[in-house]
């Protein structure tokens, strides 16, 4: 009942742009009434998580309803659906709640690491200043006078601390891009090294200067300068380990999406498995086309249709039930193999024909709408400035003329769940504002784009799971395979080492290219 109410409200939002009559609406609702009543008992056994209601342009059952429909189906029928895109069981709900609880622990771990790093950084910057100020506070009268060299060291310490502060801010104070399952080994080693280094300097300072109340103030300042110099060298070491070491490509990784087999290749340097997984995910959202589960339903429905036509008869008695049925199913599937490829060929050819036809209609409709925009702009220039139409109003004015052609094309190509009416209007107003052509407007819909192009709520997965036989803190090696899993699919990553290339040089003598042309003069006899 709730699914029908959701789809009826979605249809009412687009009744302004469609030509369906009320009579057709009642006929379509009666036609789909019985299938929903059959699914009612099944919905009681599972928990359904619906996608966010972002005003989809069409229903989600367009991939099934498209088969067996002519080009004018939208004039006489209305499709009402309550089917969700993801169905999970109670065990999956419990697992999701457990993941949410684990995420709270990850947040605490992340803030704890940031707190420790901030406290240690503050201690590092205050230590040289404390080395210089403590003798002035505790035994000022006993100190030797500070000469010109000593005062020059003050300037050196100030500028070196400023450089160290800017370098630390540029290297460490960045917005974190992800929460990794394990600590970054090199960063942890640097923190331990800095702590031991500062502790050693404080220990020496306390024993040799504070206890004895050394009166050589220039030597104390020189000691603080040596500390700042050592900290600058540690900062250089951090740049080499954290930034420069991974720049040289050493491995080639192949990333394959498990559902449709789409793959990409990337070159990586010396990285740990968890940081390589982070790089793969960043490139995935940019390079891979958006995951569309509706494109996978056609092959599944075709296989189910072929297997549904098989009948198995048990003639050997109840003893050989399982093995006899399996052998009969395999033999029948082998006999039907010769005819199945013909069905697949004609289905794909018919689908391509419908896509080309509706694409042509969409291109013509958009070109006519943009021509109307140019005519409106010419008319608006003759009006007063207060009466001019903004790009949003212009987009709303021309959208009904192209809405039907765009609606049919998105249903045919099964992209309707990724484009809401609001997103289309925003894209159209953006194209009008920047004086873009119809071809530039259609590029988003004719060619499936990368994942980042679409609405964030429809594709972004907040939780990825890294599965690896090796420790995630270990470095990449030849032959390592790890998997990145989310709710709908997984990314399988295979690591291969770039082979060692040996180049040889061959010298070519410049004189070898020279030749002599000898002509023999001949006379006619």
Automatic annotation (TrEMBL):
Q: What is its main location?
A: membrane
Subcellular location(s): the record lists: Cell membrane
Q: Where is the composition biased (Basic residues)?
A: 19-35
* Highest rank taxon of the organism: Eukaryota
For region Disordered, the annotated ranges are 1-86
* Pfam families membership: Strabismus
Q: Which residues cross the membrane?
A: 111-133, 153-172, 184-204, 224-244
Q: Where is the composition biased (Polar residues)?
A: 74-86
Membrane topology, record value: Multi-pass membrane protein
- What InterPro entries has UniProt attached to this entry? VANGL
Q: Which UniProt key words apply to this protein?
A: Cell membrane, Membrane, Transmembrane, Transmembrane helix
- Gene Ontology cellular component? plasma membrane
Q: Where is the composition biased (Basic and acidic residues)?
A: 36-45
Q: Which PANTHER family match?
A: VANG-LIKE PROTEIN (PTHR20886)
Give the record's family classification.
Belongs to the Vang family.
Protein name per Swiss-Prot or TrEMBL: VANG1 protein
